[in-house]
Amino acid sequence: MPHNTALINTASLLNANGSNFGILALAVFKHQYHHNLIYRQYCDAMKVEVEKIDDISKIPFLPISFFKSHVVLCAPYTPDNTTLVFESSGTTGENNSKHYIADTSLYQLSLMAGFSQFYGSPAQYAILALLPSYLERKNASLVYMAKELMNASSNENNGFFINEWDTLRSRLLKLQKSGTKTLLLGVTFALLDFAEAYPMLLTDTIVMETGGMKGRKKEMTRQEVHDFLKQQWNLDTVHSEYGMTELLSQAYALRDGIYTPSATMKVLVREMNDPLDVTDTGNGLLNVIDLANVHSCSFIATDDIATIHNDGTFEILGRADHTALRGCSLMAV
C-alpha cells in the first residue's frame, strides 16, 4: 500500500485536531519509515509489519537516545542542508542530543499556533526570560523559543536575563504598575533563587517554569516549587511548559503541573519493560507524537515517567534513568 504523501504538508499538520490526528500521524509514520533511514532500521529491528499498522498505538517510537548517537533526519535532508540545529546541554563525558531542523518556518508556525492555543497572541504580552545556563551555550531550543515569542510580541520591555536580578525586578514592577500583561518564562532553579531574593506582588504576571533544577542540593517536588513561587510573588497559580531539544511542539500546564498538548502533539504511555505495549491512558513511560517533527522523527519514546488522564492531559512523575538527567529535565512530583 503506498503511503499518502499528500497529507504531509504544513497546512494539514498545523490543522491537526482530535478527529484527524490519527490519520495524519499514520501518514507521517509511513512517510518517515520510507525516508528516515535510522527510523526504518529501528522499525525493522523491532520486526514491525509496517503495512499492518492501522492505529497510532501500534506505531514504533524511537528511543530518544538515538538523537545522541545518530543523525535523525528524513531524506533528502542532511545536516549540511538543514537550517538550524537544537542541541541539549548534556553532562560531562556525555554526547549531546542534536535535533537538525530542516524547515525553520514549520517550527515557528507550530510554536505560534501552540502558544496562541493556550495564551492568545504573543503580541499581548511583555515577555521576560530568566534562562541562565541556557543563554550561556549555543543552540538551546528554549532560548530560540523565547526569541521567537519576543519577536512576535515586539514589546519594548522584552528581554533575556542571566543574573541581572535588580533590573528584572524593576522591569517586572514597572509592568505590574502599568497593567501590562507579562509572561516571565524561567528555568526552575533560577526562578526559585530570584523569588527567594526578591519577594514582590506579581498578580498580573504569568510565571511559567520550564523545568531544570541544575543539581540543587534540596530536592523539591513541583508542588513545593509552585507553592514557594506563589507565596513569594502572591500568585494564584504557576504555569509550566513541557518541551525538549528533540521536539518542536510544546505542552502547557496552566496550573498544578497538568499539561495539555498543543494540537500538533499527542502523548501515550508504554509499559516499562515492553516498548510495544502502548496505551493512551494510565501510568508508564511517556511516548510523544509530534507532527511538527515531520522531517526528523515524530514518534519519540522519552525517558519521562508519566500519568495520562482520560482527557489526554498528563503529569510528569520523574525520570526512568536519573543518571542521565538533561539540563531541561523536569523535577519529580
Helix proportion of residues, in percent? 25-40%
What composes the largest sheet?
Answer: 7 strands, mixed
Mean pLDDT: 90
Contiguous low-pLDDT stretches (5 residues minimum) are 322-333
Radius of gyration: 20 Å
- In terms of DSSP E residues, the strand content is 15-25%
Count of β-strands: 15
Question: What's the level 1 CATH class of the domain at 105-253?
Answer: Alpha Beta
Shape: globular
Distance between the termini: 45 Å
Output the number of helix runs: 9
Query: What order do the helices and strands follow?
Result: HHHEHEEHEHEHEHEHEEEEEEEE
Please describe what this structure looks like.
This protein is about 30% helix and about 25% strand. It is an alpha/beta fold. It has a domain at about 105-255: Rossmann fold (3-Layer(aba) Sandwich), CATH 3.40.50.980. The strands form three sheets. Strands 5-4-6-7-8-9-10 form a seven-stranded mixed β-sheet, sandwiched between helices. Strands 1, 11, 12, 13, 14 and 15 form a six-stranded mixed β-sheet that branches. Mean pLDDT is about 90; it is low at about 320-333.
Describe the structure concisely for a colleague.
With 333 residues, this protein is an alpha/beta fold. It is 29% helix and 23% strand. It has a domain at 105-253: Rossmann fold (3-Layer(aba) Sandwich), CATH 3.40.50.
Describe the SSE topology.
Elements: H1 10-14, H2 21-35, H3 37-45, E1 62-63, H4 66-69, E2 84-87, E3 98-101, H5 104-119, E4 126-130, H6 141-153, E5 159-161, H7 165-178, E6 182-186, H8 188-197, E7 205-209, H9 222-233, E8 239-242, E9 251-253, E10 260-261, E11 265-271, E12 274-279, E13 282-290, E14 299-308, E15 314-319
Helix pairs in contact: 2-3, 8-9
